[in-house]
Design a protein that fits this description.
This protein is of the alpha+beta class. The protein has two helices and three strands; from the N terminus they run βββαα. The chain is elongated and about 60 Å long. Pfam families: Ribosomal_L31 (PF01197).
Length: 79
Amino acid sequence: MAKPGIHPEWYPEAKVYCNGQVVMTVGSTKPELHVDVWSGNHPFYTGTQKIIDTEGRVERFMRKYGMKSDQASGGKKKK
């Protein structure tokens, strides 16, 4: 199907390295891939991500859309 001689060589079992360890095997045009971040050590995927609240923006958003009660944040309800 593909024209011969114009495509790079395909490595169906290319190894992905992170911090010197093989973390997964993928198909690639290179036999080895070296990465700094992958889903196994990224804070978003591991659940260690922290929300940085700058000037109360996150709290204000949570309060605005009813995701957090005013009593839990220590505020008083307006009458």
